[in-house]
């Protein structure tokens, strides 16, 4: 068997956004800011730090402006999520220069998540993307429910490609293609990502896996074979979309970093420092974390105590 893999992979840390958005108890802004700082210190180069969404819908993200201001001195790529025109305006007020829009392939999911059909979202966002590109803003499009939807079931590949094409034609820099409820299998991932890499050779293609059924590492391996070298992951395996029943945490960054390191693939992330960043955020959680690497880290600590 020939195993294809890149020498280097970029991890886009989504813990401060996808990881925390589903937490019921509000995490104080200064802890979030410290979490972001320590994650960047561990070697992360790109991160979703917050989202400009309605505080009524996602109360955990109500401090988005403060988070951006607190991270001002960090020069690496700080991405903020924006669902609509209002979110874009708020992000621009804070001088953000890397924005992520998010749209579901499934209409039903999109309606539950941002109260618009997929077409209504596109009609609002596409003309805006063109103007944002003229302003020199980095733009990422998160494509939700690219494999399965909790309401509509299996999603047709042609519909995913059609949605991706709309964003690519508008000039987007990156597509982050998501298995929102962690249902995809490695063959489906290989199949979709192989096509996306072929069809959109000039766009950054990133895979975003939730680990509901513990298939995320296998899906990452399959996506590497398809030529993907960018993965979203969340420190501690935190995360999930509040409007996608069944969406548990993202694949844990520490497990991805460990696997890639063992395979000789560079990530630039220091595992020990990453685990220290997770120590900081676990003090705010009322449950144990599920990731293999973090459990081992706790066992080591107990042995040394
Ligand atoms: P709506 O109720 O239809 O909004 O919600 P509206 O336009 O009717 O406005 C209602 C109120 O919200 C108004 O305020 C607006 O100003 C305000 P009021 O007059 O009542 O005081 N508003 C906003 N406030 C802050 N930021 C905004 C904004 N827009 C309107 N951007 C809305 C529509 C999109 C706002 C709402 O549905 C929402 O906030 N949804 C966010 C959902 C969300 O954050 N989901 C999680 C992120 S996506 C995800 O996790 C998936 C991903 O990880 C990939 C994957 O795994 O699939 C990316
Ligand atoms: Mg997600």
TrEMBL record:
<comment type="similarity">
    <text>Belongs to the HMG-CoA lyase family.</text>
</comment>
<keyword id="KW-0456">Lyase</keyword>
<dbReference type="InterPro" id="IPR043594">
    <property type="entry name" value="HMGL"/>
</dbReference>
<feature type="domain" description="Pyruvate carboxyltransferase">
    <location>
        <begin position="9"/>
        <end position="275"/>
    </location>
</feature>
<dbReference type="GO" id="GO:0046951">
    <property type="term" value="P:ketone body biosynthetic process"/>
</dbReference>
<dbReference type="InterPro" id="IPR000891">
    <property type="entry name" value="PYR_CT"/>
</dbReference>
<dbReference type="Pfam" id="PF00682">
    <property type="entry name" value="HMGL-like"/>
</dbReference>
<protein>
    <submittedName>
        <fullName>Hydroxymethylglutaryl-CoA lyase</fullName>
    </submittedName>
</protein>
<dbReference type="GO" id="GO:0046872">
    <property type="term" value="F:metal ion binding"/>
</dbReference>
<dbReference type="GO" id="GO:0006552">
    <property type="term" value="P:L-leucine catabolic process"/>
</dbReference>
<keyword id="KW-0479">Metal-binding</keyword>
<dbReference type="InterPro" id="IPR013785">
    <property type="entry name" value="Aldolase_TIM"/>
</dbReference>
<dbReference type="GO" id="GO:0004419">
    <property type="term" value="F:hydroxymethylglutaryl-CoA lyase activity"/>
</dbReference>
């Amino acid at each position: 068997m020939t195993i294809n893999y890149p020498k280097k992979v970029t991890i886009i840390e989504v813990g401060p956004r996808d990881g925390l958005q589903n937490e019921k108890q509000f995490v104080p802004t200064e802890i979030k800011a410290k979490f972001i700082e320590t994650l960047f210190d561990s070697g992360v180069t790109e991160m979703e730090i917050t989202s400009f969404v309605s505080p009524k819908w996602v109360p955990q993200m109500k401090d988005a402006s403060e988070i951006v201001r607190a991270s001002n001195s960090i020069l690496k790529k700080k991405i903020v999520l924006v669902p609509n025109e209002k979110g874009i305006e708020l992000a621009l007020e804070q001088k953000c220069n890397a924005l992520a829009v998010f749209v579901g392939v499934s209409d039903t999911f999109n309606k539950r998540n941002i109260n618009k059909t997929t077409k209504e979202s596109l009609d609002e966002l596409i003309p805006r993307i063109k103007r944002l590109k003229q302003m020199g803003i980095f733009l990422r499009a998160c494509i939700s429910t690219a494999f399965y939807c909790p309401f509509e079931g299996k999603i047709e590949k042609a519909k995913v490609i059609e949605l991706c094409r709309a964003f690519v034609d508008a000039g987007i820099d990156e597509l982050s293609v998501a298995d929102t409820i962690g249902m995809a299998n490695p063959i489906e991932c290989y199949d979709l990502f192989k096509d996306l890499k072929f069809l959109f050779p000039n766009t950054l293609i990133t895979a975003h896996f939730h680990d509901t059924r513990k298939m995320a590492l296998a899906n990452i391996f399959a996506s590497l074979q398809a030529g993907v070298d960018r993965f979203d992951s969340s420190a501690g395996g935190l995360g999930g979309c509040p409007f996608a029943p069944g969406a548990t945490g993202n694949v844990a960054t520490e497990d991805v970093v460990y696997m890639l390191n063992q395979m000789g693939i560079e990530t630039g992330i220091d595992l020990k420092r990453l685990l220290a960043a997770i120590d900081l955020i676990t003090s705010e959680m009322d449950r144990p974390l599920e990731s293999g690497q973090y459990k081992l880290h706790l066992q080591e600590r107990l042995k040394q105590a």
